[in-house]
Specification:
By secondary structure, the chain is an alpha+beta fold. Among the domains are: 86 residues, conserved putative lor/sdh protein from methanococcus maripaludis s2 fold (Beta Barrel); 100 residues, Beta Barrel (Elongation Factor Tu (Ef-tu), domain 3); 62 residues, Orthogonal Bundle (Helix Hairpins), CATH 1.10.287. The chain is built from four helices and 20 strands. Strands 2, 4, 7, 9, 10, 11, 12, 13, 17 and 18 form a ten-stranded antiparallel β-sheet that branches. A four-stranded antiparallel β-sheet has the order 6-5-3-8. α2 runs antiparallel to α3. The chain is elongated, with a radius of gyration of 42 Å. The protein starts with a helix and ends in a 17-residue tail after the last strand. 21% of the residues are buried.
Amino acid sequence: MTSGPILRRTALFLTIAALSACSDTKPPAAPAMGPMPVTVLEVQPQRVPSSIEVMAQTEGARETEVRARVGGILVKRLYQEGETVKAGQPLFQIDRSTYEITLADAKAKADQASREMNRLKGLIEAKAISQKDYDDAVSNNAVAQAALHQAQLNLSWTTVTAPVAGTTGRAAKSEGNLISVGTDSLLTSIYQSNPIWVRFSLGDSDLGKLAGGRVTEKNITGVEMILANGSVYPKTGKLNFLASNIDTTLGTQQLRAEFDNKENQLLPGQFVRIRLLTGERDGVFLVPQAAIIQTEQGPIVMLAGAEDKVAPRPIQVAEWRGKDWVVTGGLKAGDKVIVDNLMKLRPGAPVAPHPPAVPGAEPAAKPAAKG
């Protein structure tokens, strides 16, 4: 009858022994971390165009307001908003009825004045009337003919046409609105986008980079436009306006460039960047923007230095060139600039550098694991 307590004591003893054996076993050590793999770019000195880049905005080469020249009820819009129209193409129709009545009345008065003048012409030749009566008839006829011409013009102006060719804007008035001559006469606008103009300005810091501190035909060798997606517009431009004074409020000089836009790739109002080519820089380095760290002491890059250890290097930069910074000082030929994993690097830490991947190339096969 005592076998039950004996079995329980034996099981408890075995459990304690197993736990003791587990507590004496040390956990496996974590594997040692190897050098951080990084992509490096071995830089070489280059000759690149020197330039100044600034924000800019496109505008139509000609922005023309379309206004009503006579008042009345707007009865019809004759164009599709945003479409390209030709000069003289009808855009709006204002109610004609009042002007048709006025024209008929003016025509009747002009005919009457003409007949009266012709009747008195025979009498003045026969000396049957005074010269004053004939002169008054001539004057009345001239006034009547002028009134007839004005009535004809007013009737023709009820059809509002495009003054120039270009792209139409949004209609400012809808059918049924009362149109008044004056400040309320604007109906729409027409934009000529070929060529396209680009408006921008240069501040003191930008002007200081130019010879003589001002823009001239000699120190600007070309004008390029950079679109919002970072690509360069395929056609080069030219400066067509240069302000002769500095804006005292902003401290900037206003400029404008002109670009060919036959394919209507650009629309008025777009924000772009203008690149003014000012010559060439020799012996500079192109470094990706992502590889440069901005610090309080200035920009630096991380190099894979001796024994493949991280070495910070202060640099001097000029301007952007595409997606790269133009580095004018701090680097020498053959330096290996680290372009990724920058936030994980520490000075002196070992790294495993490798060159950038070639676009379209297949990745190298991993070595087979040992059995």
